Structure formats: structure tokens, C-alpha cells
Amino acid sequence: MTQDRSDLLQGTLELLILKVLSLEPMHGWGIAQRIQQVSRDRFQVNHGSLYPALQKMSGKGWVTAGWRTTENNRRARYYALTPVGEKQLAKERAEWERSTSAVNWILDWTGGTV
Amino acid sequence: MSLYTEARERLRALFFRNRQEQELNEEVRFHLAMETEANLRKGLGPAEARRQAALTFGAVERFKEEVRAARSLGLVEDLVRELRYAVRRLAREPAFSVAVIVTLALGIGGTTAMFSLVNGILLAPLPYPEPDRLVRLTHTASSAGPGTVDLSDAIVMLYQTETRAFDGVAAWRSDDGDLGPSAADQTAVRVRGARVTANFFDVLGVRPALGRGFVPGEDRPGKNGVVVLSHRIWQERLEGDPDAIGRQIDVNDVPRTIVGIMPPRFAYPARQVELWLPLALDPARTHPARLNLIGIGRLKRGVSSEAARADLARVLTNLGEYAQGDASAATWQETHVAPHLQSLRDSIVGPPSKLLWFVFGSVLLVLLVACTNVAGLLLVRAERAQMEIAARAALGSGFRGILTLMLSESVLLSVLGGGTGVLLAVASMRVVRSMGTALSLPRLEDVGIDAPVLLFALGTTVFCALFVSVIPLLRARRVSIAQVLRGAGTGPAGGRAPQRARHTLVVSQIALAVVLVTSSGLMTRSLLRLYDVQPGFEAEHVVASRVLLPYARYGGGDVRLNFFQAMVREAQAIPGVRDVALTDRVPLGGHGLDMAIDVEDVSGQANAGGTDHAVAHVDGHYFKTLRIPLLRGRTFGVQDAALPVDEAMVSRAFAERYWPGTSPLGRRVRPLGGRWYTIVGEVGDVRYDGLEDPPSETVYFPIVVAGQQGTSASLPPALSLVVRTDGGEGETLSAIRRIVAALDPTIPTYDEGSLQRLVHDASARARALTVLLAVASVVTLLLGAVGLYGIMAYSVSIRRRELGIRMALGARPADISRMVSLHGLRVAGVGIVIGTACALATSQLLRGLLYGVSPTDLVTLSATSGALLVAAFIASWIPAHRAAAVHPAEALQSQ
Description:
heterodimer, A: alpha+beta, 14% strand, elongated, disordered N terminus, B: 895 residues, 11-stranded mixed beta sheet, 15% strand
């Protein structure tokens, strides 16, 4: 499967999970699938990093977890965003925007003083 | 908000680990199932679908570790987990673990047991309300020398009525008594007692457990027919009768009403006192110069000792009004008598405090040696475990991980050692108390394993844990991963830093051992000197037995004299008996009566107040019976109640003090306020009080002396019969008992025993101390040697390669073993030098406890250094020998 996939930084992973969960509660596998789909296969989440990240976020109170049954009658653990998590999403998103615009400034710089 | 959730999550992680593990497993299963399904839909075969699904997770265990790590509580949970691993690791090396735990248990247990003594005796306040307001009253008199004198009944009554600085002033004196039987099967028994003022218990602030103390006015003649008993006597003689109050009991043949029972642990003036009787203070007939009452007082709140002292001095000037009908009052006024206050606790615990701190310090040294030993063992182990440490560090464990690895083992070992040590201390409390009795320590009833002692044990354990972890920890920081994994760490003795650490440990162990063994050696020599001390009399084959004639039936001097003379006559008839004598004071027997003695016409001495001297009343056969040499003059003649003679004898020390170089015969002395006695003889010195003290300056009076104010002759009510016999001591004592019983069946004998045992017991204190120190020294030497051996063996083992090379290059086994031994001796030598320097410094502290031995005694110091050199030599020779026995080829190959 030769696809052009970029590596995902740990911090970015959390941001993406927050975003996915802000739309609806989802189990771990579903989150990974969603990220892959919406990023048009550019991001393939390492499943091994997904769950530790979810655990950390749960410890920080950004998400809560609960067991539910899926439509296929399987038991799965669903994660949901908390109000604190929503605030965190907004914060991290703003931070992301700041970082990317700064990088863009530098990339667009053609020389000389600013 | 988030802190709370975080904490809650982590606590849940800690406590519900299993359930979390199960849930994680289930989550993983679900994930794998979904992934497998997706792969199946993509067209992979079932096996391939599952494999691909598994691959997305990577190594499952590693994954679980990461999840767990994300969930972990940080240092604490790591520690808990490490502790479990540590338990497994230590269980695999039982010899090492047990050795460390036992070492720590000995150190911590011994220190805790000693601390229970220090705490109960020196640190804990007296068990009375507001104990810092309690003081002991004494006086200094300009002619009494540096010591102090006590109070007389006149002074007590004066203080009680006129002073304004005290809530109460009380006084007491010893007064043993015969308790009559309280049940059909009991016989009279002799107990220790005290005569006290009526406010005695109020001043102390203690209420009897049953009944009451004494009421004001009960310490007057005719009103004092009451008694307060101890808890023990109430249990043993009265069967704990709840109606004991109001019952009658005979004390010295006088029936008294029991008015109170004291609580179980009440122990003033001494643990052994079983009954308290009121004094009979008579304001009309006082003896202002008879300073035989021990005064205590309770300061008013807010009044300082200095202010109280000044108040007492002011009051003392009115003494004349209380000194009716006693000629000595005038002389008393002339002396510069000043009140002196001391906290009651200091007066009780002061004298042995130095000894106690010394013993405690010694035990602390043992603890330090034990800790150093364990640190060394752990260091060696850590160096062996370098590979594991390096591996962990390479896997990303970080410093925190290494820290927990090392801490977990030492914490576990320290906790186990500390716990065992506390159990040891609890188990040894009986031994501790009996040692305390041998050392004549006060307040043993307050000694036990209570909260402060347990706290101390905890603190000691924490200290040990830190101490034994520090050096291995410092070493762990400097572990270079790459170096270790490459095996470069096995260079010459493992590099300089570990060698320095090992050497430091060995040196400190040896230094500590030197200090301890030196102190022990000094005390032992001191004890041997004590054994050499001449008590001044011949104690072999002499027994003594004492009787007290109760005043009720033996009031008159002639009645008493008849009894005693009959006793002597009968005793002389016992088969095997050579000499018989009477005395009221047996040397080293603990009957101490010191009196203020006035010496006539001694120029240049402001002796109007008299100086306290040892005094004894003896008959004419006393000196012969005890083989005390008669140096000048003669002894007393036959004693006759009708014609008491005013003769006295003195000991050589007394004569030397007042008439140096000349004969004391013909001079006169008198007890303060009494008649003049002419000295007719001088005898050799006898040590009456203790072998460590200089010989007593003694004045001997005859048994029969003229009574006060022209009454008939008086005798002391209690006398000891001293018998020199060729027969068995037990039989002689039984014979004496039969004689006394035949004369009067109601009079018991007491204080029976051989004089040899008294001499032996007099050095009991020094003996107990020496035994204690010897045990501590042996333990320290053993610990030191074992620790030294362990470290040396390890050093040699990691030098195998180097030694193999040397041997391959032509060194002989003898060279190898010599090189290693010398190395060990060099290190030990440094320790001995440092230790000797420390020992010289600390032995100055021993000054007050040594007898006849200088703190810088050369013999002891060299013997100690010698012993430790020998120990060090053996400890290094054995591994050296082993090293030299290894085949060079083997050594070179080993890794």
C-alpha cells in the first residue's frame, strides 16, 4: 500500500481527536477511521498511539468514556467530549492557526527586512 | 477542575487495576474485530485479514505498557510496581536480604530500645501535673563544701507557714517499716517507706486511687496514726480489697488506719517505696540542726526559681522562732546558710544523665556502622546490577526510573529492618529494665515503648533508608550507558569513582568501630581498676543480718541493749563463728547516714556549720570482725547503758583532713547540736558508699550514747549483726534468724547477705555498663569485618582480569595475595588513623565515668588499633588468597 502519508505529531493527534469527537461521540476504531477518511487518506493514525492519547485526554478531563452497544450488537467503548474538552479544542485550534500562519510568513518571505 | 478529574482517574487506575486491564483488553478486541472486518471487506482472506489487523497495533504488550504508562500515577505508582519487583528480586537472594534486614534490625532495634530509656528517664516530664513547677529544696552552707544539705523539721514548718512563693512546701525522709500480717497466712514483712508531711501528695498533685492522702494537721504528734499504701501492697497483702480504706494494719507494731491507696505507677520518692506515713512535727520540740528531711515544693504560677529562692532566704532569717529549746540554733544562725533550688526532675535524673547519654551515643555508633555496612552491600549489589541499570536507561527509563529501581530495594529493606527492629526493641524491654536497675537508673517505671519512642523508630528507619540509598544513588547518576554496555566498566577495579565510594565506606566503618571499641576498652580497664580497689575491710566469710526494734516495745535504751547483747551472745555460740559485732552501717550496704560534724578548735576553718561526714555507731568488736586495721589508740570497751561514754573513733582520711600529720587522739568532735566526744582511736579507711568514690571520712560513735537532754542512754533502733564465720554463709544466716525468732518471734531479720556479695554488687553498675559496651563492640567488630570482607571480595572479583594478566606476566600467587592484602590493609589503616583521632576527641566525654584510667590511655588505643588491623587483615587476606588461587587463563577468559 504505497500511499503518501504524513506522520502525525502527538499533539496534533489530540487536536484531531478533539475535533472528531466534537461532532459526535465515537469509539476508538471509529475515530481512527474518521480521521483517515476526512483527511482523504493523508493521515493514517497509528492505532498504537491512539489509545494512549485517549487515555491521557481522559485523565485530563477532556473526554469521558462509557460502554455502549454498536449497531452490530458489539460492546464498544465510546468517547465523548466534555465542556472542558470543548474549551481545549478551541484553544488548541487557535494555537494551531498561530503556528501555521507564522510558518507561512517565513515561507513567503522573499528576503530583506520585514 | 481538571486536577480533580486527573487525580480521580489516577486513583481509579491505582485501585481498580484489574478491571481497567480487562476493559483495555476488551477495547483492543473490539478494535481488532472491526479492523479484521474491514480487511475482509477489502477482499483479504480471513487469516490475512486478522494478521493485517494485528499489525496495525504493533507489539501488543508494548502498546499496553504505553497505555498503562499514560495512565500511571507517576512516581508513586512506579514505586508500588517497583516494590513488587523488588520483593521478587530480593526473594531470589535470601542470604543477602536476610543479612541486610538483620543488620538493620539490630541497629534500629538497639537504638530504639536505648531511646526508650533516654526518653522515659531524661526527656519525658515527670508524671505530675505542671511538673516544671516542682522543685527540690536544699541549702548550701559555707562550711559544707560544694555539696548541699537538706532541711530540718523547724525549717520545713518555717517555710510552710511563712513563704509566699510556693503553693506548698513538703518534705520527706526514708523510714522503712515492718508491715504486720493482714491475713492468717502472712508473716511480717519489711518494706521501704517514707515519712512525709501532710501536704506531700497535694504538692505533687497526685490523688490516691482509693481513699485520700493526708489532711492538714495529720502530721502532728498524736494525730498521725494513719498510713497510705502502695498499689502493689494493696494487691499482694490486702488482696485488692475494695473496702481497704478504714482497715487497720500494723506498722512497726503500731496499728494504723489505712486512709488511701496510691495508683499503680506512683513512684515518689522511689519505685520501691510501699508505704507513706505522716511525720510527727512538733512546733514545740524541733531540731533545727537535724537536717534529715528532703524538701520539695510547688512554685506558684508565674513565680521564677530566683524569686522563690530570694523569698526563702528572707524567711530563713526568722528561724530562731522555730528553734525552741535547742542550743544548736545559735550556732546555726552564724553559718551562712542559703537556700538552693533545683528542678525536681534534674534532682532525680541529673546524676545518671551523663552515663545515659554516653550509652545512647554508643548505640548510635552501632547504628551508623550497621547503616554503613548495608550501604556497602547495596553499593556492591548496584555495581553488579549495572547491566540492568544501563539496559533500562537505554530503553528510555530515564533518571526517574533508575531512582525508583534503587529506592525500592533500599526502602523495602529498611522498612523490613525497621519493623523487625521495633519488634526486637519491644521484646527486649525486660532486659532493658533489668539493665536499668543494675545501673541504678531512676524513673524506670516511665520507661516503655510509647508514642515518642515509636516516632523515633520511624525517624531512624527513614534515616537508614536515605543513608543506605545515597551512595548507590549518587553512583547511578554517573552510569554511562554506552560504557557499561560495552563492558568498559570492568576496567581496573571498575574505575576510580566506584573505588572511591567503596573506600569511603570501608574507612568510615573502621573509624566508627575504632571509636566504639576504644570506649569499650577504656570502660573495661576502668572496671578492672575498680576490682583492684581495696574496700578497706576483708569481706570474705562475713555475713550480716539486720533487725529493727520497734519503738513501741523497745523504747528504752537498756531494753534495746539487752536484746542486742543477747543476740551477740547467742551468735557467738554458733558453730564456726569467729567474731561477732554490731553496727548500724554495713560498708557498701546502703545504710547511709551522714551527719554534720563539728570539730573542736580547728584553726582556719569556718566550721560553725559543720560538714557532712559519714557516721557509724559500732561496738568494740566491729573493727576486729571486719579486719579494719587499728592505726592508733584503742577501740571502744564494753558498752553499758548506765554509763555511756563520750568516746569516738575516726578514720584515717578524717584525721588527715583535720590534723594532717599529727595524731587525732585526744581531740574532740561532736555531732552538730550534740555533746563533745573525745577521739580515742584511729582506724584504716573504709569505703562505705561506693567503690568509685574516695574512702569515706568517717566518725565512729559507740552504740550506746548519752540521750538527748539528760534522758537515759539511747541506741539506734536498727543494727546489723556482722558475723565472721568459717561455716557456710547460708547456715549462719539461718542460725541468726532462729536466734532472733527465739528472742522475739515478731521481729523479722532483713538485709541479710554476705559482704562479699555487697562488694560484688558495688561494681554492678560498672559491670553492667561494661557488658553493654562489650556487646556493642563485638557486634560492631563483626559488622565491620563482615562488611569489609564483602567489599574486599567484590573488589577482588572485578579485578580478576587484571590479576589474571599480572599472573600471566609472571607474578606469583604469593605476590598477588600480598598485593591485595596490603591494599586492604592500607585502606583499613586510613580508617584506623581517622578513627583513633575521633576516639581521642570523644573519649574526653568519658572523663566523668572512668575510674583510674585516663581517656587517652595508650594501652587501650593501641590494643584497639591492633584488633582492627588483625580483623582487616583477615578480611582482606581471604579474598586475596582466593584470587591468587585462580588460574590465569580462567581469569583472563572470565567476563
